[in-house]
Write a structure and sequence with these properties.
It is built from eight helices and six strands; from the N terminus they run E-H-H-E-H-E-H-E-H-H-E-E-H-H. Strands 3-4-2-1-5-6 form a six-stranded parallel beta sheet, with helices on both faces. With 254 residues, the protein is an alpha/beta fold. Helix 1 crosses helix 2 and helix 3 runs parallel beside helix 4. It has one domain: Decaprenyl diphosphate synthase-like (Undecaprenyl pyrophosphate synthetase), CATH 3.40.1180.10.
Length: 254
């Protein structure tokens, strides 16, 4: 097997599912599963740096996750704060820049502090953009974009008739990121869970039964190999894709 896949997505997003089940199968508390999941997240970022994937987005905490037991939420926030503090130096050494999407201003003050410090410390890094979706919900994201456009239209700054898809995208949390190429979901569940619903339009979906803490380099490689085998058509038919170089994913399009 080659050291790295030949066909690489520019932007990979991961729904990191299965921490709790991973712990339960080992007779461990759920908190141990979340710790192991944080280690898997760090490993995934390092793999992206090694293989040259420019953007990795991780679904770290959703708007719905606040509904979990209070003790678990407190641990998740504490774990995130510790993760950022512990690995800030690693991010810099591996040339990883952090970005956050969602509503981080609603997170505990201690988490916000560590996020701010890490964002500032990694601002000059350029090997990988690691995007953490924190307090993120796609419906909320789209609603906020709609409100922002409505305010501009009401103020006469834009013509409502000129609002198009590009206008909406400019007001999403993900503005400026490359198009989403691949969404990986671990843990076997077949749903998107309110994650990047606008951005997923023509992304490839890959679902694996592997639980997130076990999603290692070999498992990542399987997802990327599957991505490379797929023929992406963006709504066209096969022959049209072959005739349009801008839609080819690599090679001669065969």
């Amino acid at each position: 097997m080659a050291e790295s896949p030949q066909e690489l997505p520019r932007h990979v997003a991961v729904i990191m599912d299965g921490n709790g089940r991973w712990a339960a199968r080992r007779g461990l508390p759920r908190t141990d599963g979340h710790r192991a999941g944080a280690d898997a997240a760090r490993a995934a970022a390092q793999v992206c740096v090694e293989w040259g994937i420019p953007v990795l987005t991780l679904y770290a905490f959703s708007t719905e996750n606040w509904k979990r037991p209070a003790a678990e939420v407190r641990f998740l926030m504490s774990n995130l704060r510790s993760f950022l503090r512990k690995h800030r130096k690693d991010f810099i050494e591996n040339n990883i820049r952090l970005r956050v999407i969602g509503a981080p201003q609603e997170l505990p003050a201690g988490v916000q502090k560590e996020l701010k410090l890490t964002l500032e410390a990694t601002a000059g890094c350029d090997a990988l953009l690691l995007v953490l979706a924190l307090n993120y919900g796609s419906h909320r994201e789209i609603a906020e974009a709609a409100r922002a456009l409505a305010r501009k239209a009401s103020a006469g700054e834009i013509d409502p008739e000129q609002i198009d898809e590009a206008s909406v995208e400019e007001h999403l949390y993900t503005a400026g990121l490359p198009p989403l190429d691949l969404v990986i979901r671990t843990g076997g569940e077949m749903r998107l869970s309110n994650f990047l619903l606008w951005q997923v339009q023509y992304a490839e979906l890959y679902v694996t039964e592997t639980l997130w803490p076990d999603f290692d380099k070999d498992e990542f490689r399987k997802a990327l190999d599957e991505f490379a085998r797929r023929e992406r058509r963006w709504g066209t038919v096969r022959d049209e894709v072959r005739a349009t170089p801008t839609h080819q994913t690599g090679g001669n399009g065969a």
